[in-house]
Each structure stands twice: as C-alpha cells, then as structure tokens.
Amino acid sequence: MIAALVVVALLVVSAGRGYVGAEAQIDAWLDANGVLSNLSSTVDAVERDGARAMLTKRGQELLAEARAKRAAARRQLETMKAWSALLATLAIVFAGVAASTLRAGLRERTRLAAQLAAEQNHDALTGLPNRRFFGEWLSFAIANARRERRHVGVLFIDITGCVAVAELHGGPAAEALLVEVARRFRAAAREGEVFARLGASEFALATPEAQDTREMSLLAQRLRDALKDPAQAPLADTPIGTSIGVALFPEDANDSAGVMAAANAAMFAARRAGRDHVAFNAMAA
After folding, report:
1. CATH superfamily ID and name for 131-283
2. DSSP one-letter string for 139-156
C-alpha cells in the first residue's frame, strides 16, 4: 500500500515536470523563430518595393495567421500550466497520504512489538510477570544487592487444592481461582517486591529488602493471610492451602539461578511436610 502510493506520487511529479518542460520549449520556440517580428519585417519590405496594394494584404493575412498560431500556442501553454498545477497538487496529496500511511504503519509495528514483549514477559492468564521476567529481574536485584552488600529474599509458593477445584467444577473454575490468587498476592505486595506466576499453580515473590529468615517468615505469613482474608469471599468451596519455600541471597546461593533452585527445593520440602507449611533452603532435603 505504502509503496504504491509512493510510486503514484513519483509518477505525478514526473508528469508535472514534463508539463513544465513543455512550457519552457514553447517559449523557446516562439522566441527563437520570432514569428511576429519576422513577418512584420517581411511586410514592411514588400511595401517599400511598390507592391503595396496586393502584398500588404497578403502580409497582413500572414501576420494574422501567425498571431492566431501564437494565440493558440499560448492557450495550449495555459492549459499545460493548469495541468501542471493540478498534478503538483495531486503529488502533494499523494505524498501526504503516503506519509500518513507510513506513520500509521510504524505506529502499528511499535504497538505490536510492545504487545509481543509484554506477552513474552507476562503470564497470559493472570497478567503477572512470568518465569522469564522473574529470573531477569532477580538477576538485576542480586547484582545491586551484591554491590550494596544487601540481601534478596525469594519465596516459591505452590497453591494446593487447585486440582480438586478442577475436578469438581472444571478447568475454567480452576483458572478463575488462580486469577483471584494472583489478584490477592498483587494487593499484598509491598513497594519493590515482584510477584510472578511460574506455571500451573506455582507463584514466586522476590523482595530486595529481606534481612533474615525471621522477616521472610513474616512475609510468608502475610501471603497466607491474604488468601484466607475473612473480609473476602472464600477462594473455593474446597480447602485451599499453600506450600512455601524460602531462599536468601547470599546465604543460600550467589546468583539468581542458584537462589531460585534453593527456593524451589525448599517448596518441595514444604509440600512433603503437608498443607500450609513453610520451609527454608537449609531444611530442604
């Protein structure tokens, strides 16, 4: 579409230039041949030679014919000028349409690129960051914490009871449960903390303000309380619990992959211990 508009605009401009060239050629021809001045000189010469009565009339006829031809050429020239102006206007219009279409195309490409980036970094169901984004953010947070000699805490959370909801009410009900869990986790997050959905019924939280295991225990309890808030409707008509694994940088690992592996191992330890347990990496077997 854009290429076609550009080609049309170029053709219109080319045609306009052709008319301008024709105008210049007509003027040059008229000036070079000197039609009126040559005929006038011829008539004057004939009159001086004594054939005034006959040739003067003929000369006048020739002069009138030359004038008529010149007038016709001028009319043709004015027509060409009008066409040239019209084509120039059309060229401007087509160029404007082409530019507008190009800008619209660029905006659409930018929108699609932003949408693709969002889809690559966020979970389609809950809108939370996904595992990829979480790992990248954690790497950045650990790099800063290493320079500033701070801690970074990570919690892996498995929501237990989702399978029972799916079996009793179907897959859409289980998905609605996960969406509500994500909403409550997001509402419970403090500034600077990042929640993510890692997959299935597993979530994660990273906090750059962790100090020790006691603070991480309090954070885990805050998340459990958010899911069992008596001021809100129950998540489901079947028991819903959490298995939470905790890891700390630099105590449990020295990089993001190691911290995530430690938190994952602790989560499995909590799951083995039963519903609503919290386990630290040091306790994971």
Report:
1. Reverse transcriptase/Diguanylate cyclase domain (3.30.70.270)
2. HHHHHHHHHHT--EEEEE
